[in-house]
Amino acid sequence: MLTPLQKRFRYHFRGNRQTNVISKPEWYLAQVLLWIGNHTQFLDEKIQPILDKVGSSVNARLEFSRGLMMLILEKLAADIPCLLYDDNLFCHLVDEVLLFEKELHSVHGYPSTFANCMHILSEETCFQRWLTVERKFALQKMDSMLSSEAAWISQYKDITDVDEMKVPDCAETFMTLLLVITGKYKNLPTASRKLQFLELQKDLVDDFRIRLTQVMKEETRASLGFRYCAILNAVNYISAVLADWADNVFFLQLQQAALEVFAENNTLSKLQLGQLASMESSVFDDMINLLERLKHDMLTRQVDHVFREVKDAAKLYKKERWLSLPSQSEQAVMSLSSSACPLLLTLRDRLLQLEQQLCFSLFKVFWQMLVEKLDIYIYQEIILANHFNEGGAAQLHFDMTRNLFPLFSHYCKRPENYFKHVKEACILLNLNVGSALLLRDVLQSTSGQPPATAALNEVGIYKLAQQDVEILLNLRTNWPNTGK
User: Fold this and answer.
1) C-alpha–C-alpha distance, residues 190 and 122, integer Å
2) Max CA-CA distance within the chain?
3) In this predicted model, what pLDDT tens digit does every residue of 110-140 receive, in sequence order?
4) Above 80 in pLDDT, residue 261?
5) What tens digit of pLDDT does each residue of 202-224 get?
6) pTM above 0.90?
7) pLDDT tens digits along 399-456
8) CA angle at residue 147 from 160 to 173, to 5 degrees?
9) Residue 56 burial by CB count (10 A; 0-12/13-18/19+): exposed, middle or buried?
10) CA 370 to chain centre
11) Rounded CA gap, 390 and 322, in Å?
């Protein structure tokens, strides 16, 4: 059955025939798939029963396919040396062979243990060329995706449900490129070949990270700008996807293979081998760590920028006359200090801007980092630097609890818990005189002994140390005149 087909194949795809075109491997690959498909029913219904009858273990369809596969392997062995140094032709051949292999295994059930094209692609000369060409074309694609006009725009920006990560187009295209490369090499017969491709992918991630860093450095003057935020979203997305891939069965198997190679070559310390073996670390850990460091640096720069603006806007508020403000009973209704308006407006505008430009997880880290700095700043530069009469303490409490904290209520249920220093300072400054006297006496009587934790907890103080509480109590001016 195979003989006439072999003759036809060699007639059409050898020598000077018009059908033998080195740039058209799809012609002979499609022809073989066609023959396999056309003979399937006949082999299964007519030939297989005869073999079964005589107790043969031969599978007619698979043996027929294997016979035709030998023609393909012969043809590839003859053609590959001729197009090894024409990148476009070689790349086209590899793509066509991979499509052929995919259909052969998925549609026609050809076993991967039988001779197949992946063995030829794995031969040293051909494989090294394949790696080189993949790298070259990947770098070209990276150039074009980063220079595209739409590089930093999310293609899902108008679809809120899909656009949670706010991924710029270049980052998504890059991860798709890596995914395509994985699809190409995942069926290679040996782990060592797969690991070489994995190294290529890691090199590409590193290259892309360096390119993102370069673009980011051009944007550092505008660290709240659209492009800077897009780069940050890109770094976050790539890191998240790599962390996700690290748990994928295919990459876990590669990690196991890498472990065996490292153990043989003694290239890692016992600690590193132990981490890989226990799955504590993954094949992408080095990449993820570098991306996370870049992400943290970029976020820190944004937080510092906003924090500088907020400090500038708070200059008037710092100079507020806390010592001589009217008490609550002297005012018809409490209102926000006018000197606090620039501070709160700056804060509100920057939070709204970054909420729109950063993805949810990044924005959450951003505002929490900002609040941490803000809490310490207000506590040290405004509260500890002033003295407060009853009206001043009440005004500070109103400004903080009714105006500053609610700015963050959109992002968490209890924003005051992120302003622990400020919240507890407000409590101490606004304690009624009797409770404040009692607390001061307790603290003074226990000085040198274990801190009066219970007494502090009773009034709602958990964060501040005992000496801080004493300092804050001394900032109050509304103590009764006891003649001391």
Assistant:
1) 8
2) 121
3) 998 898 999 999 999 999 999 999 999 999 9
4) no
5) 999 999 999 999 999 999 899 99
6) no
7) 999 999 999 999 999 999 999 999 999 999 999 999 999 999 888 887 656 667 888 9
8) 45
9) exposed
10) 21
11) 9
Q: Give the separation between CA 359 and CA 354, rounded to whole angstroms.
A: 9
Rounded alpha-carbon distances, angstroms, from residue 265 to 194, 269, 421: 18, 11, 54
* CA 353 to centroid of chain Cα atoms: 22
Judged on CB neighbours under 10 Å (0-12, 13-18, 19+), 207 is middle
Residue 317 CA, distance from chain mean position? 39
Amino acid sitting at position 58: V
**Residue 362 structure tokens:** 């990044």
How many helices (H) and strands (E) in the chain? Answer: 21, 0
CA 271 – CA 277 distance, rounded (Å):
10
Token pair recorded at residue 355 = 């909420």
Find, among 67, 62, 57, 56, the residue nearest to 43 by Cα.
62
Q: How far is residue 9's CA from residue 332's CA, in Å, rounded to a whole number?
A: 100
Q: How many angstroms separate the CA atoms of 466 and 5, rounded?
A: 93
Q: Which of 123, 117, 73 is nearest to 97 (CA)?
A: 117
Terminal-to-terminal C-alpha distance of the chain: 117
Give the residues across from 476 on adjacent strands: 388
Q: Which amino acid is at 144?
A: S
Whole-number Å distance between alpha carbons of 437 and 418: 28
